[in-house]
Amino acid sequence: MAKQPHGRGESRGWMGYFLSFFLGALLTFGGYTYLTREKHFSPEAFSQKVFIADQIIHSQLYEIGISKKEILLHQAVLKREGGIAWEQSLLKIQLPRSLSLSLIEGNFKRNLSLLGKPFSIQSSLVSESLQLEVKVMDRITQQLTFLYSKPEALKIDLRPKVAIVIDDLGKENRISQEILRWDLPLTLSLLLYTPCKNHCPGGSAKG
Known about the structure:
Elements: H1 6-36, H2 43-63, E1 71-81, E2 84-95, H3 101-113, E3 119-125, E4 129-136, E5 139-148, E6 165-166, H4 173-180, E7 187-188
Parallel strand pairs: 2-5, 6-7
Antiparallel strand pairs: 1-2, 3-4, 4-5
C-alpha cells in the first residue's frame, strides 16, 4: 500500500483547523448579532417604542384617577445619543394621600414588564414621594415623580379687630335705651341700681 506524501497530510490538517476556526467564528458572530440586534433599532423603531411607553404611562395615570389639575409639571427635554434623538418626558404628579405609592410602583412595573425587551423601569420610593424612570434601549425616555399633596394650612384671619366698650350706662337711661336700639356689635357696661341723673323714673337705673 502506497503511503501519502508527508506534506499533503499536514496541509489537510491545517485546512481542517482553519475550517473549524472559521465556522466557530461565524457561529460566534451570528450569535452575538442575534443577541444584540435589539440594540440597533432604527430611529423610527425607537420612536415607536417610546410612543408605546407613553401610552402605557397615560393609561396607568387614567386608571388611578389622575386628572390634569394634579399634573404639576409636564415637560419634554430633547435628548441625543448614538445617532438617535428623542424627547424625554418629565412628569410631576400630585397624589391624594388615599393612594398608596407602593401600589402605584407595582402597577407600573407590572404593566411595563409585559412589553419585554428593550423596555425597563427603575424606581426610587421614599416616605413622601415615588420616582420612576422608564428606559428604552437603556435610554431614559420618561421620568415620573409622584408627590403627596400637602394638607391645607388653617386659614387665620389676620385683619385688625376693634372692640368698642361703652361704660357706665346705668346713670343715663335715655342714652342707654338709644344705644340698645343700635344694630352694632357693641359691648355695654351697665352699672345697675345707680341713681339716675335724667329721665329715670323711680330714681333707679333701667338698663
